[in-house]
Amino acid sequence: MTKILFLLATVTFLSACGSNSILQSITVSSVVDTEQNQWVQFDSKLKMGALQFPALTLPILNPRNTTELLGKVSLSPGADGTNLLSVQANLNQLHSNALAQDNLLPNGNIIPVSGMSGVVSIKISERSKIYIGSSATQFLLGVALSIPAFDSIGKYVPGGAGLFLPLPKASNVDGAAGVFTGGNGQNGIGIFILVPNTIQFQQKQSNGLAMKMAATSRIPSIESKAAMVISDENSSVNTNLKRSLYFMSLKPQVLSIK
Hints:
This protein is mostly beta strands. Helix content is 15%, strand content 39%. It is globular, with a radius of gyration of 18 Å.
């Protein structure tokens, strides 16, 4: 019976299009607006059993000027029983206005990306965050959503844990998606993507003076290539995590975001 439930957990909650990723599909697009700001958007479709996202849009506000919109995170239930999650972000303005470096998930663990220095984050709610990082050849865009309903899972997984798996091969997107657990308020879902960096961040001028980027820029250009850190889904911790996710996904529930 245990083996049957384990297989059902994998198929029901984590399987998608031949991949064990929580994502069924993801697409990425990029545009430059009239002010020469680079916007990147990803649109994803997730399978989570009977669990549903609320119809919700979270603005990404400039932490230095909360009247300025830097992007948005949109969630909604899909018509086919899936859940839709889209992230739209102004990379130039995020680069210029993020207040501090931060490469930690809400549970305190490092995000599932290696080789990317100077990652920054911006809060989109009390605990949920957007992440961005840049090197000479790549940029990172990620989101971590804190979901209070997942606190029931964290209670049965000792310490902070994370189960991040590759995105479906058919998406042709380099990234990872999955769940993270911890104490109360430290549990949820994360998606991270790496895309070739063709963006030229330009210094802007104020009162005729160049706004110089500090030598310790929060997002420096580096030559090393970043890569996703993929979890061992067959470890004892992640086996328990998948089993807990399965049982949770059986009960219809509209999730809230913290």
